[in-house]
Design goal:
2 copies of one chain form a homodimer. Chain A is an alpha/beta fold. Chain A has 2 domains: 16-256, Type I PLP-dependent aspartate aminotransferase-like (Major domain) (Aspartate Aminotransferase, domain 2); 258-378, Aspartate Aminotransferase, domain 1 (Alpha-Beta Complex). In chain A, 43% of the residues lie in helices and 15% in strands. Chain A has helices at 16-22, 32-49, 62-73, 87-98, 116-125, 147-154, 176-179, 205-211, 223-230, 241-257, 259-279, 305-316, 342-358, 367-378, and strands spanning 5-6, 55-59, 79-84, 102-107, 131-135, 137-138, 143-144, 160-164, 183-187, 198-203, 294-298, 318-319, 321-322, 331-335. A 7-stranded mixed beta sheet of chain A has the order 2-10-9-8-5-3-4, with helices on both faces. At the A-B interface, helix 1, helix 3, helix 4 and helix 10 of A face helix 1, helix 3, helix 4 and helix 10 of B.
């Protein structure tokens, strides 16, 4: 098998259009040429985040943008409620702890969503809590948390809702301003169909008001300085120019498809994958609140999931993600976000069926694919 | 004029080979495929930095790597001697101040190099100073500081020499281990011929010993965590994959040319530009210690340098850099670093002559070019 298919929840495939745009000769960033491009990028990002605020572009991975949220919005000693339902919830805990915040941890079983009443109770018990840190989609467990409902709680209080939307923004409808999300973050290598290297972050007016009062030291991730510069269509430090050029092209593609269609496509591919899983009697990792970004499936008990994953990657050249920590070897994760179409999902299911059969699982070849086809067909125009 | 020539001291032109390497389909970073590539990148970086230590790859601009040096090597309250002879010296001051260090500032006239005795005296006066922060090449003033001689002073003391080598590494011979530089930094968009988005940093053994004792909070720029991961040919957070692929190709090109030849080429282009300047009676910004990365020239008093710069950029499509702060409008800076050849320098001088004539300066067209040709010809094999 000579063709590789990347079906991991980031990095995701980069369309040829975007790769070729990035392959143009380099140009300087302190020029009208860059500023004109960047102005259009900023407009596109506001549409993507569904906000009237500035979406700041950082030369960093998504983790850098998460750090930026923490060091700009919270002071040492601040209490913050952290939803920890996976690897990226853990990352919030580590960031909060590193920068001297006092995290109030809500532990959520991996694969489950936090319940809104858990967060409301934590805030009642800690009325001075300055923020709630959560994932819009917990990539490690393939579960989504109820952001709209959480925002309904936090916006009535002096509490910022900080959402790691790294596998949520551009995946499902997450209207920042309408819902009242205070900080929304994503990274370039997910729904945005770009290589990694850009962190994106937007703050609400009340989050900006907080930033001014937070004495935490910050320089590279000083969002106030970035905001001042980016308002003038430039950046505080040298931007990752080629990725910004790619971002311009990717945002154009998303606008051409239409954001609602992008969301519907992700939902459809996820539904088709879940239909295949049901037909193959594979259990979902997040049965109650599965993410449209990525579907997690338990592999049959008799099979070592790490070997299945490696076989798929090295022999079939179909790259899923495996499980992390206590899910390592027990699950595979099949991504839907980014530049993905119906037949990528068909391929994913077919490859999974073949690999399961290879490892001795009694699988009727084509059964899962048939279920996925039926689901995909139902969405086609008549 | 339809062809653009980028002659700024970063970003520099990206060779087609590198751009096409980066345009290949995305692949995942937690794979043997990436690790094999990254292992070769790490080897190439050690050769480039002339060190046996790990050169860590960060998804950030060069400023991010400068911040990493500060927050990993120095604790709040630490005294550090900072050589401030330009915009990037100022950046050290700002970083040191932001993170609670006590900078002892040595102000150097723009265009001059710090004198070694100034630094030695500052260290004698502040025997507890933990570090000396300096530029290997101060891009804003086109001057180089005497790194080898500074290292001879610092390595006899318990003082780390931290060198921003953003326009020095890969430009001129700066053997980190042999000279005894403790921290050496560069960015991708300079001699490395890549787009911006990677910060690179290496630490000496004694710098690493210091890191362990420094309580400064750090997460995204936690070099200890990066070192542990990168020793295993992976990264702590998602790397800027496409730029790492480009880095692999750029390092291959530099190895093919030979590092000594790369240094000689930069020196030759700089010498040719200075010869042209002399022939045109244009004053150098850094007459005593000009950088081989970039040559700064005062424009004639009667000419507004900003207009000259804009005319070159917008009408001739030859992009130099202008001056910053009090040099704004008074100088142009012509770069030599990165993917630059003899005829790029010829073009630079020709464009400058034409622009000077356009603005009414009495210039003999071809005079500067002739001087540059003579200099370049002298280096050609007989």
């Amino acid at each position: 098998m000579i063709k590789q298919l990347l079906l991991a929840p980031g990095p995701t495939p980069v369309p040829a259009r975007v790769r070729l745009a990035m392959a143009q000769p380099m140009f300087h960033h302190r020029t009208p040429q860059f500023s004109a491009l960047f102005a259009e990028v900023r407009d596109g990002l506001r549409q993507l985040f569904q906000t009237e605020e500035d979406v700041l572009v950082l030369a960093s991975s998504g983790t850098g943008a998460m750090e930026a949220a923490v060091v700009n919005c919270f002071a040492p000693g601040d209490e913050v409620v952290v939803v920890n339902g996976g690897k990226f919830g853990e990352r919030w805990i580590k960031l909060a702890t590193t920068f001297g915040l006092t995290p109030i941890e809500i532990r959520v079983e991996w694969g489950r969503a936090v319940r809104v009443d858990q967060v409301a109770e934590a805030l009642d018990a800690h009325p001075r809590a300055r923020g709630v840190l959560v994932q819009g989609s917990e990539t490690s467990t393939t579960a989504v948390h109820p952001i709209e409902q959480l925002a309904a709680v936090t916006r009535r209080r002096d509490t910022l809702l900080v959402v790691d939307g790294i596998t949520a923004v551009g995946v499902y409808d997450l209207p920042m301003d309408r819902w009242g999300v205070d900080v929304l973050i994503t990274g370039s290598q997910k729904a945005l169909m770009l290589p990694p290297g850009l962190g994106l972050i937007a703050l609400s007016q009340r989050a900006w008001a907080r930033v001014e009062k937070v004495p935490q030291p910050r320089y590279y991730f000083d969002l106030t300085r970035e905001r001042t510069n980016q308002a003038k269509n430039t950046t505080a430090y040298t931007p990752a120019i080629s990725l910004v050029i790619g971002l311009h092209e990717a945002l154009t593609m998303m606008r051409e498809e239409g954001l609602a269609n992008v969301f519907a496509r992700h939902a459809r591919l996820a539904a088709a994958t879940r239909a295949a899983a049901a037909a193959l009697e594979l259990r979902l990792v997040a049965p109650d609140n599965p993410s449209p970004a990525v579907t997690g499936l338990y592999v049959p008990d008799a099979i070592d999931g790490s070997k299945l994953f490696a076989y798929l990657r090295d022999k079939m050249r179909v790259v899923f993600a495996g499980g992390q920590d206590h899910l390592k070897g027990k699950i595979v994760r099949i991504a839907h976000l980014g530049y993905m179409g119906a037949f990528d999902t068909i391929t994913a299911v077919a490859a999974l069926e073949m690999a399961l059969r290879h490892f001795g699982h009694a699988v009727e070849l084509g059964r899962g694919v048939g279920a996925a086809e039926a689901e995909l067909l139902s969405a086609l125009p008549g």
